[in-house]
Specification:
Distance between the termini: 21 Å
Radius of gyration: 18 Å
Mean pLDDT: 94
CATH class: Alpha Beta
Number of helices: 13
Order of helices and strands: EHEHEHHEHHEHHEHEHHEHEEEH
CATH superfamily: Ribonucleoside hydrolase-like
Largest sheet: 9 strands, mixed
Number of strands: 11
Shape: globular
Strand order of the largest sheet: 3-2-1-4-5-6-11-9-10
Length: 322
């Protein structure tokens, strides 16, 4: 079976970085390009992080494309060092050599990657939607050549994680999300907190993985534990009852690898751009009635098998040395 070609759009914080490592090891995924933009950290730090991840994994022969520096709302970005660390990788701070280069104004290269893999490329967005929405505005015909879209974001039937009603990626630029759901030429796979909040790796699981990485001298895998521990410390402080860090972006890439792993519901969805308490809220018409809201219809992830998720994540992350 040919590997899935993935254009990876992200703000490259902790769970994004672990997703990159997962994609590196996965036998059915081939990351063919990175789009690096603002979100968890500034665009500049995100660029530094993805260069560092390229060096660590050795996938240095694919392009890095500079994405958005801010939201389409015009609001100044808010970063979250308490969640992801000052530069986005928890306690890991890549040295200044990874800040070199000027690959930040080459967004047109999105066209080249999609054209190269026309009809077979999957676009995976793990962060804010500003860059992806911009691609739809600038290159509408090119975006029709994408095979499938996977987006981590939203909170439909669960509380938000940035406000009581909104998830961070959608809240930070709901204008961009609205453009995506209106302009996408096919149904988007939306991976919301409804499923990702349960995609938890406990400290015990991380320790088991790290023991394997240490014993097998897997230098790539060894960077997971310090990031995951930092991430869990934040979650444990904020949500004392939580048993581990929810790896939202890792889960979303796991879902992309095989579409049969997750149960989706195709429903009309709407994103609130109204100022106030509902700003950034994602709503879906989940009524069983044949009468549905006249909103764009997309695929919203609702259910998955947690044991299958953990088993396959372990198998993939250990595959480099097993």
């Amino acid at each position: 079976m040919p590997k899935k070609k993935v254009l990876f759009i992200s703000d490259f914080g902790i769970d994004d970085a672990i997703a990159v490592i997962y994609g590196y090891y996965h036998e059915e995924i081939e990351i063919v390009g990175f789009v690096s933009d603002y979100g968890n950290v500034s665009k500049e730090n995100a660029l530094r992080n993805v260069r560092y991840l390229q060096q660590v994994t050795g996938i240095t022969d694919i392009p890095i494309i500079g994405g958005a520096t801010s939201a389409l709302t015009g609001q100044k970005p808010v970063y979250y060092p308490e969640v992801h660390g000052e530069v986005g990788l928890g306690p890991l701070v890549p040295d200044n050599s990874y800040s070199n280069g000027t690959i930040s104004e080459n967004f047109y290269e999105v066209n080249e990657i999609i054209n190269k893999y026309e009809g077979e490329i999957s676009v995976f967005s793990a962060g804010r939607l500003s860059s992806l929405a911009t691609a739809f505005i600038l290159y509408p015909d090119t975006m029709k050549k994408v095979k499938e879209f996977f987006v981590m974001g939203g909170a439909f039937n669960v509380p938000g994680n940035i406000t009581p009603l909104a998830e961070a990626n959608f809240y930070s630029d709901p204008y961009a999300v609205n453009l995506l759901v209106q302009l996408a030429p096919k149904k988007v796979h939306i991976i919301p907190l409804d499923v990702t909040q349960s995609a938890i790796l406990t400290p015990e699981m991380i320790n088991i993985l790290d023991k394997h990485f240490q014993e097998s001298n897997d230098k790539i895998g060894q960077i997971i534990k310090p990031m995951a521990d930092y991430y869990y410390k934040f979650y444990k402080t904020t949500y004392p009852a939580i048993s581990g860090g929810p790896l939202h972006d890792l889960f979303a890439l796991w879902a992309l690898a095989d579409g049969q792993k997750v149960e989706y519901e195709e429903v009309p969805i709407k994103i609130s751009i109204s100022p106030g308490s509902t700003f950034g809220q994602s709503a879906g018409d989940f009524r069983k009635s044949p009468e549905k809201a006249d909103w764009p219809i997309h695929k919203v992830a609702m259910r998955f098998n947690y044991q299958q998720f953990i088993k396959e994540v372990f198998a993939t992350l250990r595959s480099g040395t097993d």
